[in-house]
Known about the structure:
- By secondary structure, this protein is of the alpha+beta class.
- It contains eleven helices and 14 strands.
- It has a five-stranded antiparallel sheet. A five-stranded mixed sheet has the order 9-11-12-14-13. Strands 1-2 form a two-stranded antiparallel sheet.
Amino acid sequence: MKIVERFFRKYFLSMLGIIALFLLLNIVLSFGVLIWAWQTSETPMLSINEICDSIMVDEEGRFAAAEGLPELLEEHHTWIMLLDETGAVIFESGLPEELPRQYTAADVAGFSRWYLREYPVYVRPHPLENYPQGLLVVGGEKGSQVKYYFSLEESSVRKLLVGPLVIFLTNIIAIVLLIWKNTRHVEKAVTPILRGIETVSTGQPVSLPEKGELAEINRQLNRAGAFIAKKDSARADWISGVSHDVRTPLSVILGFAGQLEEDRSLPAPAREQAAQIRRQGEKLRSLISDLNLASRLEYAMQPLRLEKVYPVELARQVVCEFLDGGLEERYEIEFSADQESESAYTLGDEALLKRALGNLIQNSVVHNPQGCRITVSVLCGGAGITVAVMDDGVGVSAEKLKELTADNRHLESTDEKLGLRHGLGVLLVRQIVEAHKGTIVMKSEPGKGFKTALTFPV
């Protein structure tokens, strides 16, 4: 999945998550308010069933309340009365004086649904021993309870239950569709910008349409892309120009230094100084060549001359060139290859691959002045054919290894001493490997040497 599509999918899913969180929060708050209202009620009504069970008939046939009931009724500001079949009050507890002690059937029908002279009341039948069934009335303080009576047809109740659900689902669907539409609108406007940024990050210019709501951003991105391309082109031209301008005087210096080194009429110290000038000049020429090649690879100006390359034969040639080139005795180079890799080949530019392998061996030599053993190996496996260069030298710290393995694709340095030799060599090797669709892996520990493995497709 593309980065842009993944970004907007996450945006859309996050909006759905916000809706779900909003609904959940409202449900929690609703239940919280109900629980808070119930727990903070000052005079909650007692259970009418419990009160009914607390009224009994004693041995003399009189009604009496269970122990503690009057105190409990007083604590909850509740009163009770028991009516017989004629509407007369035959038992009471806490009954207000202003209320009558005799009620007609019409009175009972009225306060059963509503109020008894503004007192909220609740009724239920009470079984009486040796009497017809009575009516228990439980009341509270004025204004302590709110009573409503509703009477609806069964079909209306169904509609009232289904209607809110339909409205709720309709609102959710409408919100999701609006979010989707808004997401698509934002995606259509932002996608060219995100792709333009991705293009600019590769150093290429962009050309976005400078119209619409984000026209100013597109205009600025076009300018940034053009500026970066111009700057990179100028840098590449400058490196190429400097390399060309330095090459001629450097050749003259190397030529005269070589003549002085071979002049037997000069004293030995002078000839040694001339040899030192030649060696340092050759290092400078190699550095300039690496710098120019890295620049050309970075800006894709170095065409690859693809041909069949046998890594085993190529590695042998590079190792032999080092051994025949006057390598000092404190350095040892070993070469090994498995049987399967002998016939394996890859498509690549032989000169560039030799340059990459030579740079790795040269790094082991340069960074281990006390000497070391260098091992070059070629192995063929499922991932491809791997050419590894390993030494048993000083190695590098974890911080330095992280810096070397960072994917730096530009010729830049924060080193105050401008020590670019090692960093440039690694950059050049990485560029050559990536140009051949390969991979590079570096491992090292202080005092345990350095290993670099280059893997290419077979």
